[in-house]
């Protein structure tokens, strides 16, 4: 059963149902491009059938390996950037206790590295790892990305010094391309256990490959339930390739209609801090897939009610080029009621006895109406709970929604040519061989900033 509901009643004041349904032709054509593999970037459509094609055997293998790693690790370091870490982090943080790292649990704490170049971050991590039993996964499809490569070089030295070469090799897992890249070569020569990122699955669509599944399993989550959720959404998507009866198509059509109405910024809203990294994953998926040829909706995210006290003002009264997509979780995993006070000094007795989630829900509903009144269309994605099954559905919902959106926008949703620009400049400034031509010109432009 599909447990995710897309509610559009707070879109209709801005875009009528008929206007939305007028996108049906575009949806059908985008679906054709995906299932017939005729659109731009069609060599990267491996994610489409991924949930139904993952075998129970390979899931069992990942689970068994994850258990072995859990048994010897207080900390599990996930080294990767972009699509090579955000999917895992999104699911792990959505399903873990907020304070998992302080609770007494037999499960390793998952720590991330290689997703920036901060010297302080890595030094502090290495210092922590001096005192912790740990293992790690180094994840890079290309095997050449600077950030994870730099972090891994240092972590590898650390783990080899701590455990000796033989044991270190057993504590390192490599997840990379099947045949190319420096990481593949290293993994083969060192004998690390390795997993393959399929050629036809791009980084940001790879959460349901070992890229996401291994770290998620090490964190103690049920990857079979996650995949089962994704399978259901995959089956629905294939069965209903039009707007009516298909929430994914409806979401993609709504985004397109809003974009045409100059709502060029989409803000993903959550009322559960556990969804912070899910929004980060979504931001990468949509930003990297759509932002091309000077087109695309800018994906942003807020966490309410926290950000109602920072970004709320802008959303209510600022430039009217935004719409919100709210992820609303019906049932918290815990129950907590507001106590009655003898002296009602804070004047909260009127909500005494209510669950905190009820107050959170009223904040959500009240905010939506206020924002709609202020000219901000709202889409609402209602999910019953934060569970593996539901998160699996959400992952596939947004992946397919992104591919449809990209094709409707007439961009290639599976490449990221713009990411290279900063890399070229960084390599030139660092003096990498082959980039010398740009070095002088860049240094001239930066003369006051270079010591
Ligand atoms: O979606 C993408 O392809 C990118 O975000 C990559 O995941 C990211 O750049 C990391 O690349 P790699 O896995 O090759 O290190």
Describe this protein's structure.
This protein has 451 residues and is α/β, with parallel strands linked by helices. The protein folds into two domains: 5-37 and 229-408, Glucose-6-phosphate isomerase like protein, domain 1 (Rossmann fold, 3-Layer(aba) Sandwich); 50-225, Rossmann fold, CATH 3.40.50.10490. It is built from 18 helices and ten strands. The strands form two sheets. A five-stranded mixed β-sheet has the order 1-10-9-7-8, sandwiched between helices. A five-stranded parallel β-sheet has the order 3-2-4-5-6, with helices on both faces. α13 links the parallel β7 (265-270) and β8 (298-303). α7 (146-163) packs across α8 (165-171), α11 (223-239) packs parallel to α16 (388-408) and α12 (247-260) crosses α16. The longest helix is centred in the C-terminal third of the chain and has 21 residues, at 388-408. Bound molecules: 5-phosphoarabinonic acid. 5-phosphoarabinonic acid binds at residues 81-84, 140-142, 145, 148, 202-204, 288, 416.
Keywords:
Rossmann fold; 2 domains; 451 residues; 5-stranded parallel β-sheet
In short:
This protein has helices spanning 17-21, 24-35, 50-53, 56-71, 86-95, 119-129, 146-163, 165-171, 182-190, 210-218, 223-239, 247-260, 276-290, 312-317, 356-373, 388-408, 420-430, 436-445, and strands at 5-7, 75-79, 109-113, 134-140, 172-176, 193-196, 265-270, 298-303, 322-329, 378-383.
């Amino acid at each position: 059963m599909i447990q995710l509901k897309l509610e559009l009643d707070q879109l209709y004041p801005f875009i009528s149902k008929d206007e939305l349904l007028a996108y049906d032709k575009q949806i059908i054509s985008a679906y054709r491009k995906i299932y017939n593999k005729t659109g731009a970037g069609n060599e990267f459509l491996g994610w489409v059938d991924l949930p139904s094609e993952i075998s129970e055997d390979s899931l069992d293998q990942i689970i068994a390996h994850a258990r072995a790693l859990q048994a010897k690790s207080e900390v599990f370091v996930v080294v990767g950037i972009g699509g090579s870490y955000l999917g895992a982090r999104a699911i792990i943080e959505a399903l873990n206790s907020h304070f998992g790292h302080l609770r007494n649990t037999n499960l390793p704490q998952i720590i991330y590295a290689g997703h920036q170049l901060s010297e302080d971050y890595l030094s502090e991590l290495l210092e922590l790892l001096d005192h912790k039993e740990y293992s790690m996964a180094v994840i890079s499809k290309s095997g050449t990305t600077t950030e994870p490569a730099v972090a891994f070089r240092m972590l590898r030295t650390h783990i080899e010094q701590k455990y000796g070469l033989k044991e270190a090799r057993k504590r390192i897992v490599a997840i990379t391309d099947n045949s190319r890249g420096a990481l593949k070569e290293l993994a083969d020569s060192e004998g690390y256990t390795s997993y393959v990122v399929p050629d036809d699955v791009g980084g940001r669509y790879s959460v349901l490959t070992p890229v996401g599944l291994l770290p998620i399993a090490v964190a103690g989550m049920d990857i079979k339930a996650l995949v089962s959720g994704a399978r259901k959404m995959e089956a629905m998507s294939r069965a209903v390739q039009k707007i009516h009866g298909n929430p994914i198509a409806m979401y993609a059509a709504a985004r397109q209609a809003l974009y045409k109405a100059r709502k060029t910024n989409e803000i993903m809203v959550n009322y559960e801090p556990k969804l912070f990294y899910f929004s980060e994953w979504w931001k990468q998926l949509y930003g990297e897939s759509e932002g091309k040829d000077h087109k695309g909706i800018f994906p942003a995210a807020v966490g309410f009610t926290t950000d109602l006290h920072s970004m709320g003002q802008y959303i209510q009264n600022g430039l009217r080029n935004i719409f919100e997509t709210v992820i609303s979780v019906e049932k918290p995993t815990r129950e907590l009621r507001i106590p009655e006070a003898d002296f009602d000094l804070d004047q909260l007795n009127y909500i005494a006895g209510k669950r905190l989630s009820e107050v959170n829900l009223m904040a959500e509903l009240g905010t939506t109406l206020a924002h709609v009144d202020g000219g901000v269309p709202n889409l609402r994605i209602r999910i019953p709970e934060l569970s593996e099954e539901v998160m699996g559905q959400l992952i596939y919902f947004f992946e397919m929604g992104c591919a449809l959106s990209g094709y409707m926008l007439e961009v290639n949703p599976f490449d990221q040519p713009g990411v290279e620009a900063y890399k070229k400049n960084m390599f030139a400034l660092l003096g990498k061989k082959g980039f010398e031509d740009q070095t002088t010109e860049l240094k001239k432009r930066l003369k006051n900033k270079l010591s």
